[in-house]
């Protein structure tokens, strides 16, 4: 069930049948382990989107002219496994209709449902945490298990960017994946990392996920599980701009609007960058 709300993402007014991109909110934080509030993330991101002009000069794209539809928020239950199932069902419908889903979280658990729906060849995730636990606090469906859920769902080609937190077991598990820590990104430079990741993706169908806490918590403090010494908003913007054309779906999750709007503002801008970059690469002539 979709729950409409008074504020939808700015300039995304195309009717669903004519749209190419569909935004969908998943306001859920039922497995939060530190600071609650990411359920308010989709609303905060949309609110901040009204601060920006529709024209995105880097791509010569006016967002108000792009075929983007905002469906509003899913009306989600309490149980995380049921939440993942409802997200999957909703995104399956979007994909079936030939549209690109853009999911706004909510905690990172919701991503598992979208990935199941999309069935990409490769999963690329920006996250401060490895999220490779088999279970956390007695639950398999948990924000601390989000990347492991993707892996267990059959997507074994995984790229993790910006991680700087995890247990020993998780780091051992990550050896079979592609891992670029925040420190490695800082040493290599984001452009070198982008070149590597593009090579890894190749012609594969990618799902791109951004957890807001990949950014240094001192820069964007509106986070449920903040970590210092992360990457910058500019790093994330460069990465999303470069990988959007290779992606068949996108999400931005874990915005906890307990700050002055900085974190949601960055999220709104990066959603706009994804839309503009993807449109420019595939449809702009």
Topology record:
Blueprint: E1 2-3, E2 21-26, H1 41-49, E3 55-56, E4 61-62, E5 68-74, H2 80-96, E6 100-105, H3 110-118, E7 122-126, H4 146-152, E8 158-163, H5 168-174, E9 178-181, H6 182-188, H7 190-201, E10 206-211, H8 233-243, E11 247-253, H9 262-282
Parallel strand pairs: 2-5, 2-6, 6-11, 7-8, 7-10, 8-9, 10-11
Antiparallel strand pairs: 1-5, 3-4
Helix pairs in contact: 1-9, 2-3, 3-4, 7-8, 8-9
Separate helix tally: 9
| CATH class descriptor | Alpha Beta
- Write down the CATH topology: Arginase, Chain A
Any idea what the radius of gyration is? 17 Å
Count of structural domains: 1
Assigned CATH superfamily: Ureohydrolase domain
- What is the N-to-C succession of helices and strands? EEHEEEHEHEHEHEHHEHEH
Outline the low-pLDDT stretches.
Answer: none
Question: Can you describe what's shown?
Answer:
This protein is of the alpha/beta class. It has one domain (2-280): Ureohydrolase domain (Arginase, Chain A, 3-Layer(aba) Sandwich), CATH 3.40.800. Helices cover 35% and strands 19% of the residues. The chain contains 9 helices and 11 strands. The chain has helices at 41-49, 80-96, 110-118, 146-152, 168-174, 182-188, 190-201, 233-243, 262-282, and strands spanning 2-3, 21-26, 55-56, 61-62, 68-74, 100-105, 122-126, 158-163, 178-181, 206-211, 247-253. The chain has a 9-stranded mixed beta sheet with strand order 1-5-2-6-11-10-7-8-9, with helices on both faces. The chain has a two-stranded antiparallel sheet with strand order 3-4. Helix 5 (168-174) links the parallel strand 8 (158-163) and strand 9 (178-181). Helix 1 (41-49) packs across helix 9 (262-282), helix 2 (80-96) runs parallel beside helix 3 and helix 3 packs parallel to helix 4 (146-152). The longest helix has 21 residues, at 262-282.
């Amino acid at each position: 069930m979709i729950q409409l709300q008074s504020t939808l993402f700015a300039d995304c007014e195309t009717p669903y049948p004519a749209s190419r991109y569909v935004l969908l909110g998943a306001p859920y934080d039922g497995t939060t382990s530190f600071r609650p509030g990411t359920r308010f993330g989709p609303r905060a991101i949309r609110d901040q989107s009204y601060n920006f002009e529709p024209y995105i000069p880097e791509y010569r794209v006016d967002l108000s002219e792009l075929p983007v539809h905002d469906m509003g928020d899913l009306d989600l239950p309490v149980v995380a496994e049921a939440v993942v199932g409802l997200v999957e069902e909703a995104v399956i419908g979007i994909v079936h209709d030939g549209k690109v889903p853009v999911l706004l979280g909510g905690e990172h658990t919701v991503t598992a449902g979208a990935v199941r729906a999309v069935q990409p060849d490769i999963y690329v995730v920006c996250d401060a945490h490895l999220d490779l636990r088999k279970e956390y606090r007695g639950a398999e469906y948990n924000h601390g298990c989000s990347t492991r859920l993707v892996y267990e769902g059959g997507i074994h080609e995984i790229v993790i960017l910006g991680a700087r937190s995890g247990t020993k077991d998780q780091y051992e598990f990550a050896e079979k994946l592609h891992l670029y820590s925040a420190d490695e990104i800082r040493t290599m430079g984001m452009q070198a990392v982008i070149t590597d990741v593009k090579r890894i993706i190749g012609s594969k169908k990618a799902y791109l996920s951004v957890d807001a806490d990949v950014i240094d918590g001192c820069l964007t403090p509106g986070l449920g599980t903040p970590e210092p010494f992360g990457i910058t908003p500019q790093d994330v913007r460069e990465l999303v701009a470069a990988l959007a054309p290779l992606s068949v779906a996108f999400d931005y999750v874990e915005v906890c609007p307990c700050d002055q709007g900085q974190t949601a503002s960055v999220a709104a801008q990066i959603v706009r960058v994804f839309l503009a970059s993807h449109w420019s690469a595939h449809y702009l002539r």
